[in-house]
Amino acid sequence: MIAKQILSNSRGNFMRKFGMCLILGLSPFVSMALEAQALTWDQCVQETAHNNAAIKAAYQSWQSATSQVSATKSAFLPAVSGSFSVNYGKNTANPAAKADDSYAASLIVSQNILNGWADEARVEQSKATASIAEATLKISKAQTSYDLKTAYASLVYAQRATRLQENIQQRRKTNLDLVGLRFDNGSENKGSVLLSQAYLQQADFNIIQARNSIQVASAQLARALGRDETALLTVTEVIPVTPIPTSPDYRTLAVQTPQRVQAVFREQSADSGIKLAKAGYFPTVGVSGTYGRQGDVMFPRDDAWSVGITVNVPIFNGGRDYYTTQSAIATRSAVGSSREDLDRQLITTLSTALTRLVEAKKNLEVTESFLKASEMRAEIGRGRYNNGLLSFDDWDLIETDLINRQQNYISSERDFVLAEANWENVLGTGSLK
């Protein structure tokens, strides 16, 4: 009777207030959960590949750069144009004079022969720019794959955490009932009852936090998928992982990353920039030809043609070509130094990412071992406490350790997936091809 009175007095007011808050706070989740759809990892990958805005933008930039290559190559082809002109005139001083009308139609063909190899340099630069854009697309896919796997893993963790907290809540209720019975029998003190009540309240609060984390993780996943909707998403919780490499050659891996590829093509573009700057020192040569008809009647009948060659030799332009060349050389040196620094940085980044992945895998194995041990100890401890062979303080330590181990285990699962996603991102790979 004493235990029932304590429980009713201490929990009555709180549970009434908490119950109302819980109902109001969780009602949106209930309605959204009814609309939720379970997504597999493969479905998420396919949807992201087609709908993600970042990938679309990178792909369109690559297409633009590729088209620019064809545009610069047009300088090697002849330019053909046609023209037609009509002029009407009258000598007002002599009204009887014949009208001064003229008609002309012509076809003009021009071809650039030499312009200091500037056209070759522009083509080389445009090709390098297209290759940089292609590497940017790979980087975008790798980053989006990282974002997708991170969001997916976060949602998996939130779903598992919610179920775990619900189980913990039920366990705390069972523990409170057990402590209450022992309090009624006079074998337990009031402090143990109050502490068990506090544990139950903490479990109720943890459930609210876990359900809120589902909403946040769902929004992150929707963004990665390229969705505008706000409906709550659920996933099937199966995330494929790749084997962890042993003794990798970091230098070889660094050379294969899209960041390194970009740096190399930036050097090539800078080399072409020097060639383009030096083109101002060389003469330009071009030929052109015109064929047409002209006369004072429509359509003109008098044939006319011309062929010409133009040679332009630069002499002095105020030092512009010299300083442009020096600027291009300095740019090439800067780009080369940046590439050297990137090589060292990539090796460090790859080594760090793999180290964290290996540690995350080992930590997952360790936490799993601790969880199995804690589950066994909790099962034994409950029986001993129920039989009066274990004090509440010792039993409480065992129960708390089990709950902490359970939470650590699902956190370790999530951290391992995030570490693997980071490793793929550093390599410039991922699930999006």
Give an overview of the whole structure.
- The chain has 433 residues and is α+β, with helices and mostly antiparallel strands.
- The protein has a single domain, classed as Outer membrane efflux proteins (OEP).
- Helix content is 69%, strand content 12%.
- It is built from nine helices and six strands, in the order αβααββααβααββαα.
- It has helices at 2-34, 41-51, 53-73, 118-184, 190-225, 250-256, 258-278, 320-386, 392-427; strands at 38-39, 79-87, 102-115, 234-235, 284-295, 302-312.
- A four-stranded antiparallel sheet has the order 2-3-5-6, with no helix packed on it.
- α6 packs across α8.
- The longest helix has 67 residues, at 118-184.
- Residues 1-35 have low confidence and may be disordered.
Termini gap? 68 Å
Main sheet record: 4 strands, antiparallel
CATH class category = Mainly Alpha
Number of helices, counting only DSSP H or I runs of 4 residues or more: 9
CATH fold-level name: Outer membrane efflux proteins (OEP)
Helix-strand topology string:
HEHHEEHHEHHEEHH
Rg (C-alpha, Å)? 38 Å
